[in-house]
Amino acid sequence: MSSNVASSLNAERALEILIVLGDAGSEGLSLAEIARRTGCAKSAAHRSIAALLQKGFAEAAGRYGHYRLGPAIEMLAKRQERLESQIQLIRPGMTEFARRTGFTIYLMVQAGVDAVCAEMVSRSTRRQFTMGVGARVPMGVAAGSVALLSMLPEENAAQIIAANSERYTTHPSLRHVDSGVVAELVSQARCRGYAVNMGYYLPGEGGIGLPIPRRSQYEVNVAVSFNAPLELMNDAWIAEIVENLRECLGATLLHS
User: Fold this and answer.
1) Cα–Cα distance, 49 to 57 (Å, whole number)
2) Considering Cα of 64, then 67, then 68, then 73, what sign does the dihedral take?
3) What is the pLDDT of residue 216?
4) Are 143 and 201 in contact (CB under 8 A)?
5) Contact (CB, 8 A) for 189 and 196
6) What is the DSSP string of 74-107?
């Protein structure tokens, strides 16, 4: 194996460990569990953890032999001013939509072949959230990430769908989902101007995702999405609620 290939594999493994640690929370994970979740040998996982510890991307957790994300992650996140300025711009509209409807609303951004929740606004103290800030799903799972795919050039979207094809079949769902289903949902979203999920993932609930294309090279494509009871989601209601969401977000934001 060449040194370039080995370096690439080491970098990919380190990134996978960061994602796994991000899902683990403050208690962290043991080395054995990290190795299991990333599908690598404990010795390989240990080498990657050692490098992440050295740079502050991981740190020892309170429990002996466990690791969690380190302070360098938060410091880097705070420096992502481009995304934060967009969040500040969109958050008031999300808040108004949540106030009007009672729905929890999410701001989704692309992260490689995944979609990540960058912001969440809720008016409910009782509703069980389907995800929180920092949670990620494969691009193509749920309405928010379908909306993100709908903004990409067709060739780029097709490449991401192909890369995630195996993940679609293993991701928890109530209905059959594969790359063909996702491609059709993306095609429909391009025609409508927004994405619709009719109960693929949550019992009795669907979702709507509204794409917000970047307005300049200093921004990124984002999508706002929310879940709603399937019993409400007829064509007339969907058209009305999407217009409500557009109104909350503002015509300037969506069309400038």
Assistant:
1) 9
2) positive
3) 79
4) no
5) yes
6) HHHHHT-HHHHHHHHHHHHHHHHHHHHH---EEE
Chain position carrying tokens 């993940």: 167
Of the CA atoms within 13 Å of residue 109, those in its CB half-sphere come to 17
Asked if residues 97 and 119 have their Cβ atoms less than 8 Å apart, the reply is no
Residues 6+ apart with CB under 8 A from 70: 52, 53, 55, 56, 57, 58, 59
Helix (H, G, I), strand (E, B) or coil at 229: strand
Sign of CA dihedral 21, 164, 177, 129: positive
Q: Can you say how many angstroms the Cα of residue 47 is from the centroid of all Cα atoms in its chain? A: 28
- The pLDDT tens digits of the residues spanning 169-219 come to 998 888 899 999 999 999 999 999 999 999 888 899 999 999 999 887 778
- Cα separation, 232 vs 145, whole angstroms: 22
Asked if 105 and 96 count as a contact pair (C-beta separation under 8 A), the reply is no
Which residues sit opposite 73 in a β-bridge? Answer: none
d(CA 251, CA 122): 22
Sign of CA dihedral 137, 207, 110, 152: positive
178 to 72, 126, 171, 190, 202: CA distances (angstroms): 37, 33, 10, 19, 17
- By C-alpha distance, which of 204, 203, 195 is closest to 229? 204
Prediction pTM value:
0.72
Place of tokens 């494509």: 221
Nearest Cα to Cα of residue 190 among 216, 158, 236: 158
Half-sphere exposure of 198 (CA within 13 A, CB side): 11
